[in-house]
Amino acid sequence: MKKFRLILIIILSSTAVLHAQNFDDALRYSRVFYGGTARFLSMGGAFTALGGDISTLGQNPAGIGLFRSSEISVTPQLYHIKSTSDFNGLTSDFLYNFNLNQAGLVVNLIRKNAESGLVSLNFGYTYSMKSNLNQNGLIRGISNRGSMADYWADISTGLFKKELYKYAADADLAYWAGLIDTLPGYSREYGSIFEYYGESDVADYGQTVRRLISDEGSTSDHSFSIGGNYSNRLYFGLTFGVSTINYISHYEHLETTGNIAPYGLDNFNYALHYENSGRGFSAKLGVILKPVEMLRIGLGIHTPTLYRINEYIHDNITSAYLDGDKFDFKNDPSRYSYALTTPVRFLAGVALQIGKIGLVSADYELVDYSSSKFSETGDGYDYSQKNEAIGKNLRRSNNIRLGAEMRYNHLYFRGGYGYYGKAFSQNDINRALDYQIFSVGTGFREQNIFVDLAFSRMINSQKYILFQSSAGDAISHMSIGRNMFTLTLGYRFGY
After folding, report:
1. Is 168 inside any structural domain?
2. CB 29 within 8 A of CB 81
3. Cα dihedral 117, 119, 124, 129 sign
4. Residue 432 counted as domain residue
5. How far is it, in rounded angstroms, from Cα 9 to Cα 26?
6. Share of the chain above pLDDT 70, in %
7. Nearest CA among 386, 467, 472, 462 for reference residue 427
8. Residue 409 phi/psi, 5° resolution?
9. Using an 8 Å Cβ cutoff, are 391 and 408 in contact?
10. What is the pLDDT of residue 400?
11. Measured between alpha carbons, how far is residue 28 from residues 24, 25, 235, 312, 485 in Å?
12. C-alpha distances in Å from residue 155, one per residue of 151, 262, 300, 426, 449
C-alpha cells in the first residue's frame, strides 16, 4: 500500500478554496517595477537622485522640486511577452498588450528669482502603472511519473469524503469526477485512477499534460504630490497615493491518456478562475541634496500600502471516458474580502551631471517582502498561518538601477539597466527568482515640446511546478521575455 507524504496540517492550510490567499498574492501586489515616461524607462528607472521627470512623483517625490515650469505628458506603451517552457519538449506562447503606462501634470505654484530660501513650490498629479500583470504561458509534454489526480489523492488523505469540500474543495471535485477514490478497506486514504485506486502497486503513466496559464491586469497608482526647491541645494517632496488592483487569473490543466486509458478514462480538465480588485493608500517622502553643482544625492521612503482586496474564485473539473460518458462538476463561486499591508521601501540614489554633455545615475532600493501581512476585514478569519508562510517563503530583496544620458544639441541618447533581486527564500518552488531589465532610448526637446522613445526588455526564468505528488512531480523550466515599446509626448508651459 502506498504511503503518502502530505500530512493533514498541510491540507488544512493550503487547499481549501475559502480564504485562498497565499504568499504569491502578497508578493504580486507588493512588487513594484515603476512605470513611467519613456525617458524614465530608457534610463532603467534610476531617478531617485535626478528628479525633473514626472515619473519621480511615484518614486522620489523630491524630484518635483526640480521642475522649473509646468508640464503635462502622456505615455502609451506596447507590451509584448513571450514565454518558453521545457517539459519533455519546448513550447512557446505569446501575447500583445497596449496600455497607458503613465499620464500626469505638474503645476508651478510659486517661483522666485532668488538664490536662497524657498525658490519654487510645485504640485503634481500622475497616473502610473506599478506592475503590468499580463502574462500567458503554455506547458505541454508527456508525464512519465505522476498526475494531477495523484496530487488530489494525496491532499485528501486524512479526510472523510464528507470533509473534502470543506478542506480540499478541488479534491472534492476530483472525487465526484471519478479521478480519485478511497483505497480498499480504508475510509481516509485515497488513490488516483492512474493507480487503479490502489489495486495495483504499479501505476500506468504516459499521459499528455497541457497547462494553459492566462493572467491579465495591473497594479497602478494615482499620486498627488507637493514639493519645492530650497536655495537650489535642497529639494523636498511629499506624495499621497491611491493604489488600485485589477487582476484576473485563469488556468486550465488538461491530461489526455491516449492508449493508457485507465478505467476507460480519455481525458480530464481542471479549470481555476479568480479575480482580484482592490484599493489602497500610501505615502512617499523624499529629499534630493545638491552639495556641489555636478552632484545630486537622493533619499526616499515609501510607507506600506494598506490594501482592501475583494476576491472572486471558482473552479470546475470535467472528465470524459471512451464510452462517451462525461462528468462536469463545479464549486459554488466564493466571494470574500481581506486586507493586505505591503512592505516599507527605502531608496537611495546618486547622480553626476557632466556639464551639458550628459549624466549618469545609480539607485539602490531595499524592500523586505517577508514583512507583508494579511489581516481580516470583519469575518474573524485567522491569518496567522498565512502570515507565517509569508515570513518563511519571502525574503528581503535588493534592487539596483543604473542609467545614463548623453546630449547632442536637441537630441538625447539614453541607456539603462535594472536588477530586481530574489523575493523568495527558496529556489525549489514554483516562482520566478529575479528579474533583469535592459533599456535604451532617445528623445527630442525643443523649447516647450518634447518627444521620447524607449525600448525595454525584462527577462526572468523559473522552475514551474505543475503538481507535486507522492507518485512524482511534474516540473517545467520556463523563460519569460517581456518587450516594452514606450512613447512619451509632453508639453511645457508657464515659463
Report:
1. no
2. no
3. negative
4. yes
5. 22
6. 93
7. 462
8. 55, -115
9. no
10. 97
11. 6, 5, 32, 17, 23
12. 6, 21, 46, 22, 62
**Long-range contacts, 255-259 (Cβ 8 Å, 24+):** 255/143, 255/147, 255/148, 255/149, 255/207, 255/208, 255/209, 255/210, 256/207, 256/208, 256/210, 257/207, 258/206, 258/207, 258/208
Task: Give first-to-last CA distance, the chain, whole Å.
Answer: 82
186 lies in a domain? Answer: no
CB half-sphere exposure, 107, CA atoms < 13 A = 6
Domain that includes residue 226, residue range: 23-145+199-493
Which residue in 355, 368, 359 sits closest to 395, CA to CA?
368
Contact 385, 392 (CB under 8 A): no
Please give the sequence-ordered ranges of beta strands (E in DSSP) within 87-117, or none if there are none.
Answer: 90-111
Joined together, the cell numbers standing for residue 407 give: 546630449
CB 416 within 8 Å of CB 44:
yes
Give the length of the chain: 495
Grid cell of 448 as nine digits: 516647450
Residue 246 domain-assigned (yes or no): yes
Output DSSP code: residue 333: P
List C-alpha distances in Å: 486 to 95, 101, 125, 437.
Answer: 17, 8, 20, 14
CA distance to 182, 187, 194, 238, 250, per residue, from 215 (Å): 35, 39, 31, 34, 6
pLDDT tens track for 472-495 = 888 888 899 999 999 999 999 987
Quote the number of domains for the chain: 1
How far is the C-alpha of 115 from the C-alpha of 99, rounded, in Å? 42
Compute the distance between CA of residue 294 and CA of residue 289 in angstroms, rounded to an integer: 11
Q: How many CA atoms lie within 13 A of 452 on its CB side?
A: 28
As beta bridge partners, residue 443 has: 412, 452
- Please state the pTM of the whole predicted model: 0.90
What letter represents residue 425's amino acid?
Answer: S
Reported as a single tens digit per residue, the pLDDT across 52-90 is 999 999 999 999 999 999 999 999 999 999 999 999 888
Query: CA–CA distance from 424 to each of 64, 186, 385, 446 (Å)?
Result: 34, 39, 18, 46
Specify the CATH number for the domain of residue 488: 2.40.160.60
Contact 33, 27 (CB under 8 A): no
What cell does 77 get? 506603451
Give me the residues paired with residue 375 across strands: 339
